[in-house]
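Changelog-adjacent note: as of this version, every example in the card shows the full chain rather than a window. The one below runs 393 residues end to end.
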Amino acid sequence: MKHIIIAICLVISGMACQSQPQANTPTGTESTYSISGKVKSTVSGKVYLERMNDRNIPLRIDSTALSADKSFSFKGKMSEPGIYQVNIANQQIIGLILDGGETLNIVADGFNMPDQPGSFSVDGSPMMAKFNQVVAESQKFRQTQMDLQNQFDAATQKKDEKKKKDIQVSYQAAEEKYNATIKPMIGEMGTSLAGLIAINNFLNPEKDFETFAKVASQLEKEGKNHFFAKLFIQDVKRRSAGSVGAEAPDFSLVDLDGKSVKLSELRGKVVVLDFWATWCGPCIMSFPGMKLSMDKFKDNPNVKFLFVNTYERVSADQWKSTVSTFVKQRGFTSFPVILDVGGEVAGSYGVNGIPAKFCIDKEGKIKFKSTGYLGSNDAIVAEMTHWIEEASK
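Full-length structure tokens:
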């Protein structure tokens, strides 16, 4: 089965941005791997086996020359699961996710064309096969997203509201079909490294947190303590601090005028928190939609919006002036901005990426949460309206 090359940095985003142990650092019981392959084209140079190191840079751990029949092989030991790649003479790279004990067979073109990557097949790892199926489904859904977004933009220009609503319905149906397709595939990967990476990259931690928590619990039951397992468990525990249904962590922060804002003093109101930073493009892109949402509920005294500035890339003594200048220059002076200097509050809510939005109900519990920019002002207003109306009941 032919696959488009797995882009390592994309596939492991969110997990490998932390670090991976050095390849020569033993952390557990050793296991073996056996990799054999054949190149279909004439290639000049060696074939390298590389493992992503603690900075996600490929570290060469073995090399071999192609034999007369263009075949190659690697055998070795590994201390724990890891992300590897076979580098064919710096012409084609094939990503591998190894738990240990695999016997793999690779057939590859051996080169990439200017307009498309070379094809290859990897046999011998059911987990990698399932992972590649999920990647393929994700690529198909991404194309559908792009097509629908183009249609939505065209309908917006023509001010065709009926068409826009039809497109939104189509998008929701496509998303539901996509999730219904990939979730069973990911479930079949269990607690394998491929499974952990798939969960982290293709499931939504807000909507699918139950799956995250279940797998983290299973990892602990199985006694898996390799790097990726520990990172996954830690991430789930951090996210659970700000999970839907939990008590919203209290805080007391200062706004740009120096006034203190304490969350517990807003009990009885529906509170929307928007965690953002001046350097975050998607945060700023979501602001017009958030402004429209605030305007929609401006006459409701029981609804409060708070824009929690966090994770700024400046020193503490420059934080307030940086944010104040930004707000004035961009015309966001109507936003009730509060300063989470040092990111402690964001950490207590388990915020890994921004923008991150939370809706807190009148009893002080987290009713809804989301991460990222939804793509349009209409989508943001629709989400905020749904959140606030449900939390107000």
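Structural remarks: The radius of gyration is 24 Å.
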